[in-house]
Design a protein that fits this description.
The complex is a heterotrimer. By secondary structure, chain A is of the alpha/beta class. Chain A is built from six helices and nine strands, in the order βββαβββαααβαβαβ. In chain A, β7, α5 and β8 form a beta-alpha-beta unit. The two termini of chain A are 31 Å apart. By secondary structure, chain B is an all-alpha fold. Chain B has one domain. By secondary structure, chain C is an all-alpha fold. Chain C is flat and about 55 Å long. Chain C has a domain of 131 residues. Chain C has six helices and no strands. The chains are: A alpha/beta, B mainly alpha, C mainly alpha. The interface between A and B is medium-sized, with 36 and 27 residues.
Chain lengths: 207, 234, 219
Amino acid sequence: MIRIEARDLQKQFNDRLIFSHINFTLQSGESLAITGPNGSGKTTLVRIVSGLLSPSGGAIVYHIDGRTYRPVEVYPLIGLVGPYLQLYLNLTAWENLVFFSKIRGLTVDKSRLRRLMAHFGLAGRELDLLKTFSSGMLQRMKYVVALIHQPEVLLVDEPTSNLDEEGSETVYQLLDEQQQNKILIVATNEPEEIRFGRKRVDVAGQE
Amino acid sequence: MNPRKYGLEESVWTLLVKSNIIFQKDFHLEFRTRYAINAIILFAVISLTAVSFSVGPIQLEPPIQSAMLWVIIFFSAMSGLSHIFVREEEQQTSDTLRLVAPPTAIFLGKWGFNVVLLFSLEIIIIPLYIALLNVEVQGMSAFLLIIVLGSVGLASIGTIMAAIVAQASTRGALFAVLSFPLSIPVLRSAIQGTWTAIQGGGVAQCLADIQLLFSFTVVILTSSILLFEFIWRK
Amino acid sequence: MRRDWWKWFLGIWMTLMILGAFLYTPVAKGLGETTRVLYFHVPAAWVATLSFLISAVYSIRYLQKQQIQYDVWAASSAQIGFIFTILATVTGSIWAKEIWHSYWNWDPRETSIFVLLLIYAAYFALRSAIEDTNQKARLAAVYSILAFVTVPFLVFVIPRIYDSLHPDPLINPEVKIKMDPRMLRVFLGSLFGFTLLFYWMLRIKTDIEFLKLKLTKRM
């Protein structure tokens, strides 16, 4: 059982206060939608929860089986899809998958990786360099990479950016599965995506 | 459910395995784009030609030969060693990397890459240098040992400075500005040792320089490993 | 006013040291009137080294605690140290012109102080290249510590370039002070005065920085 606890989170860059007084707890089987207008700090909050950024005030901790961890310590549990996380464009899709599997300490499960690729409509493109992919295909590829290690905590920033209808459907299906018994955090303003968060945090409304 | 199941605890062995994976990834990427290796070798060849051209037929004395060699190596290193981190930052893959690998493994992998990069440069540049400047190296074993140790030293400083510079706004000039003061002990002992070796000194005659190069590299590498997490985590 | 008594004391003390340096002390054999630079040049070099040490210590503390006031101390100490480094370099250079007949000839002491100048310059260049306050503090602290780790090697490696011609009032292998008692009195007094002056300047600098932080509500 994993529980994420955010207490009084606050972030500022130099003099500019991004947000303050963010509080929430989330445990396996729960989901959270982060909402707020453009520039309000949705991405900043996602980055803080995933450990890519440290907060200026407050605390974010992961409780796992009675022990507490800082976000940077639990990166093996986290999967993150966001516009600011790029893959290696000069490697092929397959080389990317092999690298990310190995660096996570997993054995390369070829059939599973192929199934994931196919699930996101990328079958047959395994040997192409990622720089030949369209932005929609790259977004699909990011999901494949984020799911390699079956993350206990999945964070998605703008889930369907660049995706067509079919791609969005696949993603919605995935988000639905993730929130069943794992943790899902979605940062979005789209009404049909907000519904995936049973809990809500409005970044702008927390002043 | 224990932490090991999630992979939350890393042993020294897995760190080494993972740094090797990072190294191979960077090597693979470099092999495909040849961005750093082209920059560094072209720079070295141009500066070597410039030196040889300006000297003309004059035979340089061993102290100057040795100093010239290290000036060329240092500036070539400054032109190529920062790519390893700057590339991740520019292509926005550094955050992806932050989420998949422990910092120490990343640092060690990148360090290994820079060491190999500098060695590959020297395999090309040193024969050229010996030929163009008409250098007669009499103590070959000491000469090679000092080249190897000096390069590892420069690569260590270059790697940790590259990590710092990658997060700053003005990267190009800053990299050399930051690296130079820290490189002085390496350059100084390497120049001294190379000079002795060219004149026929063996390992015994260069021992003081070899000891200094070795111990300084160990100290810089150890402090870099300890400090890298503070650079890498935002 | 009562808490500031030591500032008045320092003013009187430094006046006495300046008078002492020119009127009370004898000159050393072979150095003539240039001996008197000793009472200003060496304390300046001492403060330059001390401020570098303080900056490194506060950098370590910053990385431990991640509190911005440690960065303020580290950066302020470096800035004031930089002024004293320039003072030591300039006074030394003028003295060298008199005795060695050239302003600069890469004597080991000249090389060491030059490297210190380079380190400070690199430290400030790094600070100005980073926007975010916390990131600036972190990276500058790491650089400061790495530079500090390098210094012992410089001390060992630089004297091997040339033999030094530099007079050694304090820094010599036997760690003995070879000085006339009157010279020694003024010298130590000036050393103490410079250190106190450095402390005062550092306090003013950090107080200003803390006020700036308060105005922007960062603390």
